[in-house]
Amino acid sequence: MSQDWYDRLLESGVMDRLAPYNPVVVGAYPLGIPAPHSRIEIVCRSVDLPAFARVIERTYGDAEGFEMHPGRLDEEEAVFAEFELDGLPLEVAAQPDHVHQRLAAATIGISRMLDVQGDTSRARLEAAVARGEDWLDAALAQTDLSRAAIEAFSTANPSVMRRVLGVKGPPVPLARYLVPVLLGLVSMTLIVLATAGRGSADFTGLMLLLEAAVLGAVFGTRLGLAAALTPLVLIGLVIVPTTATGGDQCDPDCGSQLAQYVFVAVLIVSAVGITGLLRDRYFPRET
Description:
The protein has a five-stranded mixed beta sheet with strand order 1-2-5-4-3, sandwiched between helices. A hairpin with a 2-residue loop joins strand 3 (about 65-75) and strand 4 (about 75-85). The protein contains twelve helices and five strands. The chain has helices at about 5-10, 15, 30, 50-60, 100-115, 120-130, 135-145, 145-150, 160-165, 175-195, 205-245, 255-280, and strands at about 25, 40-45, 65-75, 75-85, 90-95. It is rod-shaped, with a radius of gyration of 30 Å. The chain folds into two domains: about 5-165, 2-Layer Sandwich (Beta Polymerase, domain 2); about 175-280.
């Protein structure tokens, strides 16, 4: 079937006629993995299944291949109608509970999961559906996740989904590092100049630690580390060679100066790491 099935479905008017029953389209077709035997699954909710059956039979009873039969949908009593409408193979089902909402969430969750996992995962699920397996059962078996987890993917942040699925995230474009690194360089320079202007560097380390925590909270772990460590690396390019050669520039001595540098670096990395992880955990970016 051509990829315009959804437009044809809307043009057929079936969704409008089913509107009182809160219809949702689920399954292989919206996932983009239909097999030749697949039907467009429309799931509805009706507290009166006999009345729903009468409405469907009265409306579509003359459609090609019309068949109606009872069954179960997600272990709930349901009624099913299969027929073709304007060349579209349809399966309309209804049940009295909110199964249609759960199936909709599962469909959206699987779709987003496939977007994260890539073409290989999509091809595996498509092959399972082609073998005659149910789309939802095949997705659960493929991921080894619970039904609730799949449904939760419908609203989950992509970065959270990648962590759950064990999928490596896309690389951050180099341009995204520009603003954090510049901000880190400028803020560290201002801190050093401000504390040096007071004639004392006693508060320099504390201010750098606070700056690192703010960078991690604003940019997250990866960008925050880049912003905080870039100035340290530049400073290290000056301090480390000096301490290695034992020059007279060391204050009070080269060993103490190197130890202070390493200590400040460790504190800064720790501050960025803690606040960055909290930022990524509770306020992840949409990437």
